[in-house]
From TrEMBL:
UniProt keyword Cytoplasm, yes or no: no
Signal peptide as annotated in the record: none
Topology versus the membrane: Multi-pass membrane protein
Predominant location: membrane
A Pfam family hit: BPD_transp_2
Location(s), subcellular: Cell membrane
Segments passing through the bilayer: 12-29, 41-61, 67-88, 157-174, 203-223, 235-263, 275-295
Similarity comment: Belongs to the binding-protein-dependent transport system permease family. LivHM subfamily.
Organism of origin: Curvibacter microcysteis
Keywords associated with the record: Amino-acid transport, Cell membrane, Membrane, Transmembrane, Transmembrane helix, Transport
Lineage: Bacteria, Pseudomonadati, Pseudomonadota, Betaproteobacteria, Burkholderiales
Stored PANTHER family: ABC TRANSPORTER PERMEASE PROTEIN, BRANCHED-CHAIN AMINO ACID TRANSPORT SYSTEM PERMEASE PROTEIN LIVH
Protein name: Branched-chain amino acid ABC transporter permease
Amino acid sequence: MAFFLETLTGGLMAGMLYSLVALGFVLIYKASGVFNFAQGAMVLFAALAMARFAEWIPAWTGITHPVAANVLAFIAAGGVMFAVAWLIERLVLRHLVNQEGATLLMATLGITYFLEGLGQSIFGSDVYKIDIGMPKDPIFALESMFEGGILINKEDVIAAAIAAALVAALSVFFQKTATGRALRAVADDHQAAQSIGIPLNRIWVIVWCVAGVVALVAGMIWGSKLGVQFSLATVALRALPVVILGGLTSVPGAIIGGLIIGVGEKLSEVYLGPFVGGGIEIWFAYVLALVFLLFRPQGLFGEKIIDRV
């Protein structure tokens, strides 16, 4: 039982981090109706900015306290992501209003390669580390209930708590604020939203800025765990099954989908892997996503599209 709970806990922690990356996909899709393939590049670019500013700020300002340096690096990286979001809207999206979804999709592919190349040019291509003070040592919980207790990674718990807090804040933002309701209106129908006075360009800037902050938090956490390297952009690929499972238009769906994928990967690898030679964790999420595409393509919480002719 203890081993099962340990595996389950690890899956839940990983699932929250998947949800954080998937949230970026959902935010952009809700506002523009396009699947943003640039989200992985945004996570990488934000992580590179955070890592490099954490190195540069002590040299520029003389501030050597790690907490102060990391706070300033986070603010500076956030400013960079805001600038990137504004430029994307100004130079790309503004000229593609009311275009076909395929056109916007190709635009995000172009943004992906541009951000990867720009990140390498500005910040370098070495492997960097982000040290934000999260403890690396594991702890043993519930020792009174189970012999030896349950092994839990402190870093995973803190990362999951940060991800959960951000997801909760964004859920409230979408449901309770005028800007959040405007975002949902824009996602439903660009032209109708414009006709009632919703400024489409400003809404897109806001949502890309929010997605940039989400990418920064995701890049900071994943960079702390794995190191900042260009393979970090592939983390977004692990989030694709999450948005398919939860639904492209649902913030709660991104959470539930991430938890299901995280737990499913861990449990299937541990309990089914020995029977098939292992490796289930690599493809489990994609097979589950394929099943949903066949039988429930809108996902668990996505809106079902009904076309009347």
